Amino acid sequence: MTTNNKIFISGDEAVAQGVKLCRPHVIAAYPITPQTITVERLSEMVEAGEMEGIYMHVESEHSAISAAMGACAVGARTFTASSSQGLLYMAEGLHYCSGGRWPVVMMNANRSVALPWSIYGDQRDSLSLLDCGWIQVYVEDAQEALDMIIQAYKIAEHKDVLTPMMVNLDGFILTHTYELVAIPEQKMVDEFLPVFETPNKMSFEEPKNLGFSSKPDDNTEFKYQQNEAMFNAIDVIRDVDQEFAEKFGRKYYDMVEEYQCEDAEVVLVALGSVCGTIRVVVDKMRAEGKKVGLLKIRYMRPFPEAEVKNLARRVNAIGVIDKDISFGYEGTVYTNVNSAISKIDKYVYKSNFVGGLGGRDITKAEIEEMFDKLFFGVANKSEEKVEFFSLNVETND
Amino acid sequence: MNRPKKQEFKFPTHIDEYPTGPQYKAGFLPEINAGWRSVRPVIDHEACVFCLRCYLLCPDGTILKENGKIEFDMDYCKGCGVCAHECPTDAIKMVKE
After folding, report:
1. What pTM, to 2 d.p., does this model score?
2. Where in the numbering of this chain does the Pyruvate:ferredoxin oxidoreductase core domain appear (chain A) (predicted)?
């Protein structure tokens, strides 16, 4: 345990503080709203000599991820950050980076993608890149954001994982709102986070061919191995969270967090900051005697299949809040949750609530309405459907 | 840095024999592409002045400086003839395979 000093900062700034504590050698990032404060603060820290790393001014996000990979390939601890269109501009490099097994850590400020152009938050940017081979974690508040940056380096750089990691914060809701955040001591972070070592680096002593092509004879084996590394991350995530809790006194329940789920009949599943609002609604409805709960999914990749199945075996209904939509089908989180539930020998009533798009609030009243709809759906054996929350106009449905 | 020596590549039989990602000790080239050639370079060492113009200009890096003499790596020479064309003393001739 430690006597942490607490300061009043935004989520973006909390990320910058976390990055500083991890002593990256290279930061290569291009500013984009709502990630901007993070990279501005980091560049100020480098300029003021508060941290020893190099801040690379790049001309685009594509260059940022390319520079980050290059730095990682000589054995440097590396950080980048992006959001929305910027993250999508990185997409080509994201696959490259995960395939090359370079453990770059990225902060992504979850923001809507155009068109219509919008700087406000939803989770379509990172969820549309779920298949790019990066570990994805979604945080609920600024403290978790700072702590997850520190954990991210330890997880990503682990020899059995060696996979890049994306720490996702809801745009504006987390990036620009202020809260008291405990800043760990540098000495303790140094003890927690060992020096980065990787076999995948350019070295004059041991020259290697880095990032080569493959023929059909080899490609499947490399991809199998990459998938296994992602599964290895599940154990590493658990161990790192446990070690973090012992050292810093804050625990995040690894892959998922269950809130009031012990005897719950109806549960909402969500990612990120909306979980904070759901907790308040759960408390209110529990006080009224309704058995409701929250499953906060922290990691979307690797996916917490075992945890979702375990919950589904105990409840009657699961509602999934998606701050995204895969046009022509349903929300991406819903698809993943459904896939896990389909593997258990029990029927669970499910519903998909698509909301919070382009920065629209998901209110306490709406969350209560979702819980009520789930109770109603179970009682009346309703059809399972994907529902948009909440449209301001009538539709033809 | 010394030029890595080509070594025989053994194809893995277990997944653990694969490197972590596509990064591997340099010098392994599991295939040769000499089959592209219809002509090959032959050097007259008497005429060669070791100016290294061919060494610099070979588009495939197949010309070696071995003990003060020019040699060709016939596993990878594609027979393009750039070396013969650029040799100031006409020491290299392209002959039919």
Report:
1. 0.88
2. 264-367
